[in-house]
Fold this sequence. Notes:
Elements: H1 2-21, E1 24-25, E2 31-32, E3 41-43, H2 46-54, E4 61-63, E5 81-82, E6 85-86, H3 88-94, E7 98-102, H4 108-116, E8 121-124, H5 131-143, H6 146-167, E9 173-177, H7 192-198, E10 202-204, H8 218-224, E11 228-232, H9 249-252, E12 256-259, H10 271-284
Parallel strand pairs: 3-4, 3-7, 7-8, 9-10, 9-11, 11-12
Antiparallel strand pairs: 1-2, 5-6
Helix pairs in contact: 5-6, 6-10
Amino acid sequence: MIRAILLSALLLCAHAQVSADTGVYDDRKQRINAAAPIQRIITLAPHAIEWLFEIGAGERVVGTVSFSDYPPAARTVPVIGNARHINLEKVIALQPDLAVAWGSGNSPDDIRRLESHGIPVYVSEPRTLEDIPQHLRSLGRLTGTSTQANATALAFEQKLNQLREQYRSLPARKTFIQIWPQPLMTVNSQHLISQALAVCNAHNVFADMELLAPTISTEAVLAARPEVIIAPTNHPGDLASWARFPDIPAVNGKRLIHVNPDFLSRPSSRILEGIAQVCGSLSVQN
């Protein structure tokens, strides 16, 4: 009898340890617990679905938002809304075990509504390159795919270190990051794009702005006299208007660089491709 009680106690302790080990903290410092690997997931940002496919849990995504187009398999996932607003009825019908959200991109009301219906929400807000592999590992624990998640995270870290070593001798250049042409918008030092371009010694001239993604004037850019202008865009014409200002060092030196926005604006492993492209361009122009 005593042995049976002790055995039961040990089993309970073991179960409690497994449950505790699958819990993680999101970027709100809130603990997300999972007594068993998560099986049904909705993603509320394009980078979130990329993460889940990267760690081998993509097939568990039952709903996502518009523009979740990578990898190609993501395009077959039912759309439940967009980053700013989701259809709660559709979400509830999908019976998700977890939602992976984007702190600065999703509506706080949507996040609260999901949680009020008992759906755990893992909120991501990566601000440094090192945050990306950390999120991959955390989601790996929640989904029970830690082996692939850890391998993917390690590969990211190794490639990032390689890029830093390869381009550490690039000259420091004052850089204007144009994330939108009209109205003219940029990012501050807290934005991940700033962190990414710092690998290339491209230093954001608007790093000290208070807002994460402020609107600025053309006059402010002219006053900053950037040596490089970089735009995450698939439309080179978004940079064409700067040709009117040949006195800007970036224009005079022909250092106007456009990069696929998915390679710089999404905090997934593909951001390393964006970094490599920018650093490579600046290396050629060195």
